[in-house]
Design goal:
The complex is a heterotrimer. Helix content of chain A is 70%, strand content 1%. Chain A is mainly alpha-helical. Chain A has one domain (63-290): Orthogonal Bundle (MetI-like fold), CATH 1.10.3720.10. A two-stranded antiparallel ribbon of chain A has the order 1-2. Chain A is flat and about 70 Å long. The two termini of chain A are 16 Å apart. By secondary structure, chain B is an alpha+beta fold. Chain B has two domains: 2-172 and 334-404, D-Maltodextrin-Binding Protein, domain 2; 176-332 and 406-455, D-Maltodextrin-Binding Protein, domain 2, CATH 3.40.190. Chain B is built from 19 helices and 15 strands. A five-stranded mixed β-sheet of chain B has the order 2-1-3-14-6. In chain B, strands 13-7-15 form a three-stranded antiparallel β-sheet. Chain B has a three-stranded antiparallel β-sheet with strand order 11-8-12. In chain B, helix 10 (252-267) crosses helix 19 and helix 18 packs antiparallel against helix 19 (437-455). Residues 20-54 of chain B have low confidence and may be disordered. Chain C is mostly helical. Chain C has one domain (83-289): MetI-like fold (Orthogonal Bundle), CATH 1.10.3720.10. Chain C has 16 helices and no strands. In chain C, helix 2 packs antiparallel against helix 15.
Chain lengths: 303, 456, 293
């Protein structure tokens, strides 16, 4: 009985997973293995790859200043962007969680930046605001804070203006929060109200704990996306000034397609995978301590 | 265990299938069919197309790709349709593209042995593709007369030679120029540049423009190695060594002089800081300060006047300044090429089309010099009467420049993109005040040499 | 219950008070303006004369209007292929990719959260791994595989990466499922439901918010994808919108910026419509359907 139940579960599980598995093998697994192989070769895409062992990795860690620069820039970006974007997205989601008129309109407004991500319009507008002679510079000058160099033109601050761009595109995180907030049973709030809990304490005692699975999700996805950021820099700053916004993936892209160095680029990709996987694994490990699930079990718990 | 073996087999297939595409034989023209990539096994039935030496099959389908804007896509499609109706049985699989991503796709196709038959190629990457045996040698076709180069200046078409093979046929020519806005110059009370002016004249004019009008003298920073190349050639040496494994000049003071030139202009406000330049560059050529009347000069290609004609029809093209050495250093630069893929099974047909493209009046009446000044002298004189003012200026400029030019440098070496990037970064560091021009010269040499040695 | 005499913060937190309401709308509108400014810029640029777009880049009001010129020259497309073809291709790929992809993701998420099967932890790690590897280094092997399958230059090659389900949606929906009480399954089992009917009859209706969110994101992501179509599509008749938008301009020749911006505006319409259509499902979850209420 027990054995057949397990067999039934395995069969059913794999049946449900079958579409994803098929796509995974075809579109991810084989290319991933191929790219892992290529990371040990000198491959310019125009001639056959030549096996060179760990040379790409040795060059990366030992000689390539741009690699370390890109790594540093990317870490700065991740730590500047992720907490701020999550907090902002949650705050706006709370703001929009009421029964007023016009909410659908505001939701639509706030989602708009997310659908302009790689657009030339964003690139130009961002430069108009943060670039030389832009709105921000003019404003500060009028306030008597004299600026010689713009936020985007200053190598020390350019990456933060890209982080601001990322925060501005908070719409998708906000939507996810919003839909999660709406899932919290109204009865919980009502019974807490009867018990005399104020709005502030209801937020910390009910809303926040009930949102932890969503916060967990957003945190992981935002970290992964921030590490893989490409478009923001590619479109707005192209890595400059002085490589101060040279995102890891932008550099990887250049090595692959502009410098005909796909082998090296593949090696960089796998180093990035390991870095992201470590972050993700650590956060997954901590989830038992702070993430509240209505139903236990599931992901990461083998039978 | 079994799964492991299957995995290993699949990976082996992927790698070999993809990479066999470029394993071209040493002599590319003798037996194209036998060199079909292993990947071709997986191709559709049309792989049965005959080898190129045989007469064309009645329904040959040429694949062709190019980059450009809407205008170019529209008339190129018209051209292809016209060619098909002139040559029954020939049809095209056209793949127009924007500049963004064009070479990303091309390298992916090359890696998979799937290059189109006819490829619009940039000088920047010609050597890279040719050195890896992805492009067919067109010289035998020129020798046999299938590709008629009688009206093309030899200096110009020989820019397509890589390792003795004609890897692409140049479609147009262009030259470095210093376009200027005459109104801004007269506002500043300076006379227009002569054809023999010097860098010192140039700096003095730029600074006077800044003083008198508050506008930029020069509105651009370096974006690639072309101006540097011109500057270094004035010192009598090429930018890159003949074997492309290192820089070609030995005196670092030439580079330092180039960096100092920009530093002087930027420090005095006569040229934009890198911060300001980013803003200018982002808005495209149509909004260039020279066109809008906010600067006197910029550094550009000879088609600049045509591009900005709608914004400002009065832009003039100046010959770049001479150095005190008085050496001629300009060269007529090939604009873009048509190359034929080594893996193409329709090389004869592809060459025939290219020949028609550059030599026929019928085709060029449609192209109307949109890809740059045509390379055939016959076509140039054919078009002369139907050009607009800016195109006429561009044609005249190329004629004028011949007296100031010498032999064009060979195609850019492999690794050129990385060297371009290095140059921009190095000059930026000077302009940001992080390093001196002398340090810049030293850094540029050591890093450029490393890049060139690794790639060539 | 009147607002009279209550401390100010309470009024703000209450939804009925008039000053609080005004403050709320003022804040929301100000924020909203910051959010839609680039969109307004795009709209303004799409109506400006081509040469004016960048020379008066800061202005939101066209000096010379070129609405008809821009929209008609853009809509004409390139080389005889009109913009409606590009829109239709994008629509097909986005709808097919979204419908199949979200369905596959729902199934996978249900398997991961509600069925204890062998190696589920390992497979979930694989799901996450697909999020981590940069696509740029997988494009060459993918091209070779797609070529072997004969789907290069077909719309299938564009829907393929999405229609088998994506890690983002699997994870998103899984997190949502884990927020639902396990008693649901038990109750359903007692009523004689199998796992599959539980998914269809109970989880599907309840997961409207997560599914709607997934649909909104999926539609947009497929719609705006540039790299996949760039690499896999050759024939302009099969171009999607982002590829087409790349065709109007060229850094080194005469460009049609007016047409580009006009069609950029047009290309956003389906995305905005799709969002408006689906966004109300985002917020109609358990709270309004009354589970446990």
């Amino acid at each position: 009985m027990k054995k057949s139940l397990r067999g039934y579960r395995n069969g059913l599980g794999y049946l449900m997973l079958a579409p994803w598995l098929a796509g995974f093998v075809l579109m991810y697994l084989l290319p991933m293995i191929a790219s892992l192989f290529l990371s040990f070769t000198n491959f310019n895409m125009l001639s056959a790859p030549k096996f060179i062992g760990f040379d790409n990795y040795a060059r990366m860690f030992g000689q390539d200043k741009s690699f370390w620069k890109a790594l540093g820039v990317t870490f700065t970006y991740v730590f500047a962007l992720v907490p701020a974007r999550l907090a902002f997205a949650l705050a706006v989601a709370m703001l929009l969680n009421s029964k007023r008129k016009g909410l659908a309109l505001y939701r639509t407004f706030y989602y708009m930046p997310s659908i302009l991500s790689g657009s030339i319009a964003v690139s130009i507008v961002w430069k108009q605001i943060f670039g030389s002679g832009g709105v921000l510079m003019t404003l500060l000058n009028q306030l008597g804070i004299h600026q010689k160099i713009s936020m985007l033109g200053n190598p020390d601050t350019a990456v933060y203006s890209l982080a601001l761009l990322g925060i501005w595109q908070f719409g998708s995180s906000m939507l996810i929060f919003l839909s999660a907030i709406k899932q919290i049973p109204a009865s919980l709030h009502e019974s807490a109200k009867i018990d005399g809990a104020r709005a502030g304490s209801r937020f910390f005692k009910i809303t926040l704990p009930m949102l932890t699975p969503t916060i967990f999700f957003n945190l992981i996805l935002q970290i992964i996306n921030a590490f893989r950021a490409f478009t923001e820099s590619y479109v707005v700053t192209d890595g400059g000034p002085l490589d101060s916004t040279l995102f890891y993936v932008l550099y990887l892209y250049r090595r692959a397609f502009n410098y005909f160095d796909m082998g090296y680029s593949s090696a960089m990709a796998w180093v990035l995978v390991i870095i992201i996987a470590l972050f993700t694994a650590v956060i997954f490990k901590t989830q038992n301590n702070w993430v509240y699930y209505e139903s236990k079990g599931g992901i990461g718990h083998d039978s | 265990m079994k799964a492991k073996a299957i995995f290993a087999a699949i990976i082996a297939v992927i790698i070999t299938a993809g990479c066999a595409g470029q394993q071209a034989a040493p002599n590319p023209t003798d037996a194209p069919a036998s060199q079909a990539p292993a990947a071709a096994v997986t191709e559709q039935p049309k792989a049965e197309a005959p080898p190129s030496e045989e007469p064309t099959a009645p329904d040959a389908k040429l694949s062709i790709t190019w980059w450009g804007s809407q205008t170019r896509h529209d008339y190129t499609q018209t051209l292809l349709d016209l060619y098909s109706s002139n040559n029954p049985g020939i049809s095209f699989e056209a793949s127009p593209s924007g500049w963004d991503g064009y070479f990303d796709k091309l390298s992916t196709q090359a890696a998979s042995g799937a290059l189109p038959d006819i490829i619009q190629m940039d000088y920047l990457y010609l050597a890279t593709y040719a050195k890896n045996n992805t492009l067919a040698d067109l010289l035998p076709y020129a020798d046999s007369g299938a590709l008629s180069l009688g009206d093309v200046d030899e200096n110009l078409y020989s820019s397509g030679f890589v390792d003795g093979k004609l890897s692409g046929l140049v479609l147009s020519s262009s030259v470095v120029t210093f376009p200027y806005n005459p109104a801004v110059l007269s506002e500043a009370g300076v006379s227009e540049p002569t054809v023999t002016w010097t860098w010192d004249d140039f700096i003095a004019i730029c600074q006077q423009v800044k003083e008198k009008t508050g506008k930029y003298g020069l509105s651009s920073n370096p974006i690639d190695t072309n101006i540097l190349n011109y500057y270094i050639r004035q010192s009598g040496s090429p930018l890159f060594a003949p074997d492309n494994k290192s820089l070609g000049y030995s005196d670092d003071s030439a580079f330092a002089g180039f960096a100092q030139l920009y530093k002087t202009l930027v420090d005095s406000g006569a040229a934009p800081t890198p911060d300001e330049w980013t803003q200018i560059n982002a808005l495209g050529k149509e909004a260039s300060p020279v066109a809008t009347g906010d600067a006197a000069f910029t550094t550009e290609w000879s088609n600049f006047g045509v591009i900005v004609a709608a914004v400002n029809p009065d832009i003039k093209l100046a010959v770049p300044p001479y150095s005190s050495s008085g050496n001629k250093a300009l060269w007529i630069k090939p604009g873009m090429f048509f190359s034929v893929a080594q893996t193409s099974k329709l090389k004869d047909e592809a060459v025939k089309f290219i020949d028609w493209f550059i030599n026929s009046e019928e085709a060029n009446a449609i192209i109307m010099a949109e890809r740059g000044v045509p390379v055939s002298s016959k076509i140039r004189s054919y078009l002369k009467t139907s050009l607009n003012k800016q195109q006429q200026d561009m044609f005249d400029y190329i004629d004028l420049i011949t007296a100031h030019s010498t032999q064009a440098p060979p195609p850019d070496p492999q690794g050129i993109s990385e060297v371009n990037k290095l140059l921009i970064d190095t000059i930026d560091q000077v302009l940001y005040g992080r390093i001196t021009p002398d340090e810049a010269a030293k850094n540029f040499r050591s890093e450029a040499d490393a890049i060139l040695a690794r790639n060539n | 219950m009147t607002a009279k005499g209550m401390p100010a913060p309470r009024i703000v937190s209450k939804s009925k008070g008039l000053p609080g309401s005004m403050l709320f709308h003022a804040v929301c509108l100000a924020l909203g303006f910051l959010m839609v400014y680039p969109l307004l810029w795009l709209l303004a640029s799409s109506m400006k004369n081509g040469s004016e777009i960048f020379t008066t880049a800061l202005s939101l009001w066209p000096k010379t209007w070129a609405v008809f010129e821009n929209y008609s020259s853009g809509w004409r497309g390139i080389g005889g292929v009109g913009f409606e073809t590009f829109m239709l291709n994008s629509l097909i790929v986005s709808v097919v990719g979204t419908v199949l992809g979200v369905a596959s993701s729902l199934m996978a998420a249900y398997a991961f959260t509600r069925i204890k099967f062998r190696l589920s932890g390992f497979w979930f790690a694989c799901v996450m791994a697909t999020l981590m590897i940069p696509g740029q280094v997988m494009v060459v092997p993918q091209y070779i595989i797609f070529r072997a399958l004969g789907i290069i230059n077909t719309l299938v090659s564009l829907a393929a990466p999405w229609m088998f389900g994506s890690a983002f949606f699997i994870f998103l929906i899984a997190q949502f499922f884990r927020g639902l009480p396990i008693e649901l399954d038990e109750a359903a089992e007692m009523d004689g439901c199998g796992k599959i009917s539980t998914l269809i009859l109970i989880y599907l209706p309840l997961s409207a918010p997560a599914a709607a969110t997934s649909c909104i994101f999926s539609f947009y992501w497929i719609w705006q994808d540039f790299f996949q179509p760039l690499i896999f599509i050759n024939d302009p008749k099969k171009f999607t919108v982002p590829l087409a938008l790349n065709l109007y301009t060229d850094p080194n020749s005469y460009s049609n910026y007016g047409g580009l911006f006009a069609m950029s505006v047009v290309s956003l319409l389906p995305v905005v419509l799709f969002f408006i259509l689906f966004q109300k499902h985002l917020v109609e979850g358990i709270a309004t359907t009354g589970l446990k209420g």
